[in-house]
Design a protein that fits this description.
- The chain is of the alpha/beta class.
- It folds into 2 domains: 172 residues, Leucine Dehydrogenase, chain A, domain 1 (Rossmann fold, 3-Layer(aba) Sandwich); 158 residues, Rossmann fold, CATH 3.40.50.720.
- It contains 16 helices and 12 strands.
- Strand 3, helix 4 and strand 4 form a beta-alpha-beta unit.
- The longest helix has 25 residues.
- It binds NADPH dihydro-nicotinamide-adenine-dinucleotide phosphate.
- The site of NADPH dihydro-nicotinamide-adenine-dinucleotide phosphate has 25 residues, from helix 8.
- Homohexamer.
- It comes from Thermoanaerobacterium thermosaccharolyticum (strain ATCC 7956 / DSM 571 / NCIMB 9385 / NCA 3814 / NCTC 13789 / WDCM 00135 / 2032) (Clostridium thermosaccharolyticum).
Length: 433
């Protein structure tokens, strides 16, 4: 904490991981002797840079850019870019740190990183977003590459931003290479990448439910957010027979007892880039409520926080439990606060933690890298099948790890342990670097 003052989210993420690694460190003294934990919490490299650009009024704007290359023990750095006004080093470091374990869990050879900027794409014209992305890449290009570091999207960075970023990268490097993932299908993107985090979340949740004699069929599901992860999680829930009754954005949430109409949500959020409150214009029986936290007051069977970090606190967790919710799957990164997680685990709620549950996106990004290297594209069904297998395997591995280290049923610990061991062994083998 002294070394990294004010980086609250980073402290929270490290504390959770280190606590659950205690049983592993007690058994594997060699990790302690090699200083694995001390090295793991220190990024290999962090880059902070100026991003100047000119807005539509001709005024110069200056944002701050970040790339934290956290750990490359098992592969090139990999992790998304977040454009949101709340971005500062503490958020990028928490995300980069978690990414190490998540990437390890996917079973693909990728290290952990994260980046982004305090730039807010909301309300900006396409021209402004393009000029910002070009300026951002004008610095970032020297740090990334298909064998070095391969960024992707995250909050505020979707297909449009990745397109602009890739265009500038290609122009500067004079090379058409897989240095970013989440690209458009016409220039090296992978089928299923757009859907991967949301679908992957549901594949893992379905596996967890199956393990406990349940399924999504006939359940009522509340999903926070209405971005990339939330929309495709909702799509898969509906395909598997669940009913999504609420979704949100950063202004408020909608409740539709008849089941949310996803085509309307996609039109509002993906096409028109408007607010979710517009939904009630075309669905007058639905309700809109200002503010996001009330979404967890809605009685449901399954809750899927898919918006942002620390969006579901202890109080919200208690309400969910009281109202009969029996399973929670984290689509966003670190959406549940530590007291919320404690409440879920102490009350027998089936809880799928983010590192495992939302790993589908980066897993398919790794497959996009493979396809780019081979100059080949797999079909939708081929990639979807691989995604499903990866998520089923992740569930099995984290469940087994929890059992092996004496915390059966605690998938938070299971995910941290299973993700950690592979990275720790690689670090051990590579000496003190
Ligand atoms: P998007 O930008 O597509 O959507 C984010 C959604 O969350 C929007 O509905 C947004 O509302 C809402 N939101 C964002 N910030 C806040 C906030 N501070 N308070 C309340 N609501 C907020 O992002 P993604 O769907 O890509 O990402 C969502 C989460 O999933 C993040 O935690 C991300 O790190 C994680 N994730 C994403 C992956 C991916 O493949 N995209 C992979 C793994 C994890 P509004 O529209 O008002 O901005």
């Amino acid at each position: 904490i002294k070394k990294n003052p004010g980086e609250f989210e980073f402290h929270q993420a490290v504390k959770e991981v280190l606590e659950s690694l205690e049983p592993v460190i007690n058994v594997h003294k060699e990790y302690k002797e090699a200083g694995i934990l001390e090295r793991l919490v220190e990024p290999e490299r962090q880059i902070i840079f100026r991003v100047p650009w000119v807005d539509d009024q001709g005024k110069v704007q200056v944002n701050r850019g970040y790339r934290v290359e956290f750990n490359s023990a098992i592969g090139p750095y990999k992790g998304g870019l977040r454009f949101h006004p709340s971005v500062y080093i503490g958020i990028i470091k928490f995300l980069g740190f978690e990414q190490i374990f998540k990437n390890s869990l996917t079973g693909t050879p990728i290290g952990g990183a994260k980046g982004g900027s305090d730039f807010d794409p909301k309300g900006k014209s396409d021209g402004e977003v393009m000029r910002f992305c070009q300026s951002f890449m004008t610095e970032l290009f020297r740090h990334i590459g298909p064998n070095t570091d391969v960024p992707a999207g995250d909050i505020g960075v979707g297909a449009r931003e990745i397109g602009y970023l890739y265009g500038q990268y290609k122009r500067i490097k004079n090379a058409f290479e897989g240095s970013l993932t989440g690209k458009g299908l016409s220039f090296g993107g992978s089928l299923v990448r757009k859907e991967a985090t949301g679908y992957g979340l549901i594949y893992l949740v379905e596996e967890m439910l199956k393990d406990h004699g349940r399924s999504l069929e006939g359940t009522k599901v509340v999903i926070s957010g209405s971005g990339n992860v939330a929309i495709y999680a909702a799509e898969k829930v509906q395909k598997l027979g669940g009913k999504v009754i609420a979704m949100s954005d950063s202004n408020g949430y909608i409740y539709d007892a008849e089941g949310v109409n996803l085509d309307s949500i996609k039109q509002i959020k993906e096409v028109e880039r408007k607010r979710i409150r517009e939904y009630i214009e075309s669905h007058p029986k639905a309700e809109y409520h200002e503010g996001c936290s009330g979404i967890w007051d809605i009685p449901c069977d399954i809750a899927l926080p898919c918006a942002t970090q620390n969006e579901l606190n202890g109080e919200a967790a208690k309400k969910l439990i009281k109202n009969g919710c029996f399973a929670v799957g984290e689509g966003a990164n670190m959406p549940s606060t530590p007291d919320a997680i404690e409440a879920f685990l102490n009350n027998g709620i089936l809880f799928a933690p983010a590192k495992a549950a939302n790993a589908g996106g980066v897993a398919i990004s790794a497959l996009e890298m493979s396809q780019n290297s081979m100059r080949y594209s797999w079909t939708f069904d081929e990639v979807d099948e691989k995604l499903k297998n990866i998520m089923v395997n992740i569930y099995k591995n984290i469940n087994d790890a929890a059992k092996e280290y004496g915390c059966e049923g605690n998938l938070v610990a299971g995910a941290n342990i299973a993700g950690f061991i592979k990275v720790a062994d690689a670090m051990l083998a590579q000496g003190i670097v």
